[in-house]
Amino acid sequence: MPQNPISYRPLEKKDFKGLAAVISDTWHYEKISSPFTATHLAYAFLYSSLAHHTYTQIAIKEDTPVGLIIGRTNTVPFQHKRYYVHLFFHLFLLVFTSEGKQAIQSFRRNTQVTHALLKLTYESYDGEVLLFAVDKSTRGNGVGSTLFNGYLTYLRSEGARTFYLFTDTSCSYTFYEHKGLKRIGALTRRMPFLQKEISFFLYRGDLQGGDITIDHN
């Protein structure tokens, strides 16, 4: 039996602080900003995803969140819109510093780019991966695959045929290609807060085409 077994379950409110830390670390926010800005930007992305979710699953190691996936189908409960209140609260707290304003600009530009990519496809989808992150301490141990496979199982149980996700060059985007997704769009933008250019990608998954498989790697 593993010394530090990893368990999986749906997200709970008590997990938010730990998950914000995972998000901040995954996108290296604290390397380019103050802990204050990094934390509130991470919360903004978390709550933005929760406002649209129908599915959550997190990985727990020693009572600490070490990974999460948040996804949806096209039927999002209206009550989840309450997360917008929390989203706007954390964005509001960033308004009072120049660094925070740059972070807000980055958040908005991220949203604009993803919308632009989606418009290029002229296609509708049955599901979306909204947020997916794994703590660096557990990468390579199958945590990401387990979380991703769980979401695929959920989509199939809901009768979904296709899904999509956005990622970029600051992430391990080749993970999705190994899982059988196809890159169908790309845009590059300068991100002042991140102090570099980022290429954004749109990936498509076809659950009926035979390329997407649930594995145990």
Task: Describe what you observe in this structure.
By secondary structure, the protein is an alpha+beta fold. The chain has a single domain, classed as Aminopeptidase (3-Layer(aba) Sandwich), CATH 3.40.630.30. Helix content is 39%, strand content 26%. It is built from 7 helices and 7 strands; from the N terminus they run E-H-H-H-E-E-H-H-E-H-E-H-E-E. It has helices at 16-26, 29-32, 35-50, 83-94, 98-119, 143-157, 174-178, and strands at residues 6-9, 55-61, 64-73, 127-134, 162-168, 182-191, 196-206. A 7-stranded mixed sheet has the order 1-2-3-4-5-7-6, sandwiched between helices. Strand 6 and strand 7 (196-206) form a beta hairpin. Helix 1 (16-26) crosses helix 3. It is globular, with a radius of gyration of 17 Å. The two termini are 18 Å apart. The mean pLDDT is 91.
Query: Low-confidence segments, ≥5 residues, pLDDT <50?
Result: none
CATH architecture field: 3-Layer(aba) Sandwich
Arithmetic mean of pLDDT: 91
Q: How many strands, what sense, and barrel or not for the largest sheet?
A: 7 strands, mixed
> How many distinct helices?
7
